[in-house]
Amino acid sequence: MSIGPAWYLGLAAVLFAIGAIGVLVRRNVLVMFMCIELMLNAANLTFVTFSRVLGDIGGQSLVFFVLVVAAAEVVVGLGIVVAIFRRRKSTTADDLHVLKG
Amino acid sequence: MLHAAFLMPLLPLAGFVVLLAVGRRVGDPWAGWIGTVAVAGSFAAACVTLIGLVHQPATARELTCSVSCGTGAASHAFFTWIPVGGLQVKAAILLDPLSMTMCVFVTGVSMLIHLYSIGYMQRDRDYSKFFVYLNLFVFSMLVLVLANNFLVTFVGWEGVGVCSYWLVSFWFHRDSAASAGKKAFIYNRVGDVGFLIAVFLIFSKTGTLTYLEVFAHRHLLAGGGAATAAVLLLFLAATGKSAQIPLFNWLPDAMEGPTPVSALIHAATMVTAGVYLLCRANPLLAMSSAGMWVIAVIGGVTAFVAATIACTQQDIKKGLAFSTVSQIGYMVLAVGTGAYVAAIFLMVAHAFYKGLLFLGAGSVIHGLEDEQDMKRMGALRRWMPWTFGTFLFAWLAIAAVPPFSGFWAKGDILSNVYAKNLPLYALALLTAFLTAYYMSRIFYLTFTGKARWQEPAPDGSPAHHKPHESPWVMRLPLVVLAFCAVFAGLIDLPWAHSVSLAAWLDPVFGNRLFDSHQSASVQIALAVADGVVAVAALLVAWGLWRRRVDRPELEPDFLQRVWYWDNLYDAVIGRPGQVMARTFATVVDARVIDGAVNGTAALVRSTAARVRRLQTGFVRNYVLGVALGLVAILVFMVSRSWS
Fold first, then answer.
1. pLDDT of B139-175, one tens digit each?
2. H helices of B510-618, where?
3. How far is CA A40 from the centre of its chain?
4. Ordered DSSP codes for A52-93
């Protein structure tokens, strides 16, 4: 049994679902960050898979953009997390509901 | 010599600018002298121009204007004020016998009253400001008179209006003065609407506003009542400015201003602007006999009504103010009968004797330290001989006693009215009787009888000090004006045909002038009637007022309160206006307009109060929203691609 594109897509779907559920149910900001990374990488995997299937290098090059953006996002995000941690001594997302209507 | 015409308006303007710049610094009395010299220069320029115009052949005098005072077309105007397509309004002047006649007496009387004001306004807080306004007034009046089109006349018209407003409320710290200024301004606005609509109408029909062109194309106004409408609208403007029924009762209130202002603006010059406008527009008037009738009747009725009121006033200035309304009523009556020359004749004579009367009254008020109630005067001839002597001549002149100027001027009007319409003549003759009567009453109460100022007033205010005669700057204008008031009749004697005001003004009025075709015997009979009426009134007043002060039966409340005219306006316009304003304030504004604004705000707030619940502050809720949205989009796309 060869491992076809469907496997990769399935894996990507599973990873994405794990990431999405993680963001939804976890309270810890760092874990939520990791889940977001998981979703991004699921998307990357999908890109690479389709790039392979369709023989179009565009999908793979787009992955680099995603990686760069993800890295930048982590920098900013962790900066914010550190700033919050200094003030609050906690990284629980639900404590931060100042924007509540 | 006609070039000097440009100096006439420019010198007072220069005086205005200089006084505005340095007036406060030079102060009392030099600011007054600057103003006086500027107007004196204007008077000299007017005289020079007049001589220049007299030397023109009579045919060239017909509305000569610019042609002879410039070298080419460009110099006709100072500049083109409004160049808009077909509407070319030039700031140009029109020199013709009519405007020159006005200019000479306006600048002359203004000069004398400026001189008088130097003394009268002495030690006033706003001494220099007074002359700023006064010079601006003279400039505006000359613009009004000299303009060669309706629009520039309107500029001058508004200019004198606003100067009148400032000067009436000159002592604005007094409530009565402030509200009198407002009253004058608002009444004039009503008239100005008529002026503007008339100008629009004339422009829409003839396509021009320049007097000569409008008159040349006046046939375009014929038909459809356009001419009558234009005449009546111009007359509405005149009723506002010249204080005729129905807009006359601002003038008595305007007496709150300083007395030189009453003399200059509210007796001699500005209030005659309406009559001037009608004379200027005489070719249009000639096209509407209905309009002429309205003018004549209103003029005659105003003259009579105002004269009856003048018989009962206690305030010397108010009495003179109603007298002014009455005299202008005569002028308007003359215009309505087509006797324009008689109107101008009375205007000139009136400027002299009414200016003099006001200045004399001012001298009395000055001497008695701001006492205006005639019942507290009396016997002043012993203490103020100059004022008494000059006032005497003015009194005889306005009472139309021969041979003073009023006799000739009023006689001219009366004989024309006699030829035109007998009931109006009867009314005018009755008014002449009343005129002589109320003036005599004022004269006797002020200068003869007992010295009532020596006793304390019934209301408890203390007796006055001994009155003092005014300084020479105030006496000199009195003397000069008295001379003019006595001899002004010479300019248009009935038997002088070649050298007279009528011949001089002939180019302006031409065959539109009403010709009464009266035989000499009729004229003499009418003149005798005038003289007899005047002398009889003098004697009646002598009998009634020489010794007594209180005659309540001759001063009914109805007349003292101006035929309840103000009450009528109050009931018809004032009160409903207030009710309407209150309704709008409490109902429309508070409920409808505020309701709409507040309702919008309340709607937004209640919606927001509900919608804000969505904003929980928990990140997971937002993420859930994003995830659900994503699912929804996917479901939508997938369902589209399957079907």
1. 999 999 998 889 999 999 999 999 999 999 999 999 9
2. 520-545, 557-560, 565-569, 575-583, 594-611
3. 4
4. HHHT-THHHHHHHHHHHHHHHHHHHHHHHHHHHHHHHS--BG
State how far the Cα of A36 lies from the Cα of B382, in Å rounded to an integer.
113
Residue type, B424: L
d(CA B228, CA B534): 36
CB contact A3 to B (< 8 Å): no
Closest CA to B330 of B268, B411, B388, B448: B411
- Alpha-carbon gap, residue B225 to B402, rounded angstroms: 43
Q: Which of A70-74, B164-168, B372-376 has the lowest mean pLDDT?
A: B372-376
pLDDT for B2 equals 74
Q: How far apart are CA B357 and CA B478, in angstroms?
A: 9
Query: Which of A24, A99, A101 has its CB closest to that of B620?
Result: A24
Residue B153 host element (H or E): helix B150-168
Interface test with A, best of B607, B620, B628, B630 (most A CBs within 10 A): B620
Contact B356, B481 (CB under 8 A): yes
Report the residue from A23, A94, A96 with minimal CB separation from B623.
A23
Name the one residue in this structure whose structure tokens are 């029109």. Answer: B94
Which stretch of DSSP H or E encloses residue B620?
Answer: helix B619-642
| CA distances from residue B282 to B88, B223, B240, B303 in whole angstroms, order as listed | 23, 18, 19, 21
**Closest Cα of chain A to B621: distance in Å?**
8
SS3 sequence of B542-560: HHHHCCCCCCHHHCCHHHH
CB pairs below 8 Å between A and B: how many?
Answer: 35
Residue B71 CB burial class (10 angstroms; 0-12, 13-18, ≥19): exposed
Nearest residue in chain B measured CA to CA from A36 = B623
Q: What confidence tens digit (pLDDT) does each residue in B14-57 have?
A: 999 999 999 888 888 889 999 999 999 999 999 998 888 888 77
Cβ-Cβ contacts under 8 Å for B375 (sequence gap 6 or more): B314, B445, B452, B549, B550
Q: Is the dihedral of CA B351, B357, B360, B365 positive or negative?
A: negative
- For residue B78, name the pLDDT band (cuts at 50, 70, 90): low
Q: Which of B617, B624, B627 sits opposite A100 (nearest CB)?
A: B617
Does A18 reach chain B within 8 Å, measured CB to CB? no
All structural domains of chain A, each given as residue ranges with its CATH number in brackets, are 5-99 (1.10.287.3510)
Among all chains, which residue has been given the structure tokens 């002088």?
B496
Q: Cα(B416)–Cα(B427) distance, rounded to whole angstroms?
A: 13
Q: Which distant-in-sequence residues (6+ apart) come within 8 Å of B129 by Cβ?
A: B23, B24, B170
Q: Give the DSSP letter string of B396-434.
A: HHHTT-TTSHHHHHHHHHHHHHHHH-HHHHHHHHHHHHH
- Which residue's structure tokens are 């859930």? B624
Closest CA to B330 of B232, B415, B392, B402: B415
Write b or e for each residue in B335-350: b if 16 or more Cβ atoms lie within 10 A of its Cβ, otherwise e.
bbbbbbbbbbbbbbbb
Residue B59: which pLDDT band, with cuts at 50, 70 and 90?
Answer: low
Judge whether B479 and B386 are in contact, CB under 8 Å: yes
A23 touching B, CB under 8 A? yes
Tokens matching residue B354? 């009414």
Q: For chain B, what's the residue count?
A: 643
Report the alpha-carbon distance of residue B534 to residue B547 in Å, rounded: 21
Nearest to B326 by CA among B422, B410, B420: B410
List, as one string, the DSSP characters of B458-502.
TTSPPPPPPP-PPPHHHHHHHHHHHHHHHHGGGGG-TT--SSSHH
| A4-42 pLDDT tens trace | 889 999 999 999 999 989 988 888 888 988 999 999 999
Sign of the torsion angle spanned by Cα atoms B234, B238, B241, B244: negative
